[in-house]
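Risk register update: the risk of archive-format incompatibility is retired. Evidence:
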Amino acid sequence: MTILLVEDNPDDELLALRALKKSNVPNTVVVTRDGQEALDYIFGEGKFQGRDVRVLPKVVFLDLKLPKLDGLEVLRKIREDKRTKGLPVVLLTSSDEVQDMQAGYDIGVNSYINKPVDFDEFVSQVKLLGQYWLGVNCVPALY
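Archived output:
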């Protein structure tokens, strides 16, 4: 099972990777650091050209504030494509702005999670996210 982690902050990336490792759910984590790179991975373009795009991540953990394309634009492009419209996407962000949350749900995000400032709480939240999306949640075989 693959998780796509879209995160431009190296500290948050490291914390998320540690938490996912502690979740005891077998997975591979692919990290992209900007919105365009995330789309390139999903659609097999750019440096990911040739990747089997039929094999999608089990879930995408997507930051909101990203270079090149922000998280909402990435989400929009995922939802517009028939191949990926059902791909589970979790906005994992430090933004607690109501308009960001509303925009995410309007576009079709599956979940909106505020990144806790506290290290232990952040690790705990990401661990729970990994367990839920990889161990509990069910999606059609197509995804």
